[in-house]
Amino acid sequence: MQVSIKSYAKVNIFLKIAGKREDYHEIVSRFVRVKSLYDTISFIPKNETNEFNLIGDFGCKLEDNSIYKAFLQLRKYCPKIDAFFRVYSIKVEKNIPEFAGLGGGSSNAAAFLILANKHFNLYYKKDKLARIAAKIGADVPFFVYEYDSANVTGIGEVVHEFKEEPLDIEVVTPKDIKCHTGKIFTCFRDDFYNEISKEKSKELLSMSSKDILNKLTIEEANDLYLPAITQYPQLKEYAKTNWFFSGSGSSFFKVK
Ligand SMILES: C[C@@](CO)(OP(=O)(O)O)[C@H](O)COP(=O)(O)OP(=O)(O)OC[C@H]1O[C@@H](n2ccc(N)nc2=O)[C@H](O)[C@@H]1O
Ligand SMILES: Nc1ncnc2c1ncn2[C@@H]1O[C@H](COP(=O)(O)OP(=O)(O)O)[C@@H](O)[C@H]1O
Per the annotation, does 213 bind a ligand? Predict the structure, then answer.
């Protein structure tokens, strides 16, 4: 029986804004998994608390943890998991930095759903898991599908695999800069708001990640880069030729 799973980081090869939806923004983006950077999530048969027990190096309270949110969502469909997680703990070996634009929290939530789906023989199809995932966070559906590369639109709920050669991605995350996604979207909305055209979206969504990175500058590839350096000017020290910016930051990446 499978009791542990790798939870990979992602980068956004490009990230453009297509519109607004209430307090959120609709995105047009290419998400690519970083195969060299992952957390490991395990179900371990030891829990002395008799409550849901999450072991790992997290910067947030249990109630805010994406894995706990995933547990609460899944429990609505499958109440028996409650008893199981009073006897088993969830242990996370954390390697993906937080507030880094690498989707660590979202990836952990999706990995939990995938592992639980197997462990409890639920046989939920990916589309059903993705609908549950969308209730946890914008980036969680992407990770549920386990695609190496995908076009992601809507608020993150529309995920289509993009078949391309595997990319070897190098990531650099500034240690001392924690980018708050909400703050950066607010800055974008107030000072940089611009919507990508339908034609440009179509073009980017059809291009290989390598071609996109060869064609675009860091500012053109990611609409959140200028808001991010406005909010966190120290980020500029990390900007180097041929490096790109992931999500709402703070990580930079390049294809090796
Ligand atoms: C920007 C992206 C791109 O991959 O990634 P990260 O940099 O966080 O990894 C994501 O879409 C981020 O998704 P996620 O990190 O799940 O965001 P959430 O916690 O749901 O949202 C935090 C806040 O950011 C704003 N937000 C988020 C997503 C979105 N599409 N539009 C928004 O305006 C909202 O104000 C929201 O309250
Ligand atoms: N399992 C988790 N792993 C990492 N961060 C988490 C987790 N659950 C909740 N968070 C919180 O989510 C927020 C964003 O972290 P994360 O998803 O890692 O970064 P980002 O949105 O920049 O990709 C932080 O407030 C972090 O504390």
Answer: no
Under the banding of pLDDT at 50, 70 and 90, the label for residue 1 is low
Q: What is the pLDDT of residue 2?
A: 67
CA distances from 248 to 14, 87, 164, 235 (A): 11, 38, 24, 12
pTM flag (> 0.90)? yes
What is the per-residue pLDDT for 105? Answer: 98
Mean pLDDT across the chain, nearest whole number?
97
Question: Distance (Å, rounded) from C-alpha 116 to C-alpha 66?
Answer: 14
- Domains of the chain (ranges, CATH numbers): 4-255 (3.30.230.10)
Q: Would you tell me how many other CB atoms lie within 10 Å of the CB of residue 175?
A: 9
Which ligand is located closest to the Cα atom of residue 70?
A: 2
SS3 content of the chain, % helix, strand, coil (to 5): 40, 25, 35
Q: 192 CA distance to ligand 1 centroid (A)?
A: 16
186-208 in b/e burial notation, b at 16+ Cβ within 10 A?
ebbeeeeeebbeeeebeebbebb
Closest CA relative to residue 255, chosen from 73, 55, 14? 14
Pocket residues for ligand 1 (CB within 6 Å)? Answer: 12, 15, 23-25, 27, 101, 103, 106, 137-139, 155-156, 181-182, 185, 247-248
Provide the pairing of β-strand 158-161 with 149-154.
Answer: antiparallel
CA contacts within 13 A on the Cβ side of 112: 28
Gap from CA of 64 to ligand 1 centroid (Å): 15
Per the listing, tokens 């006897």 go with 87
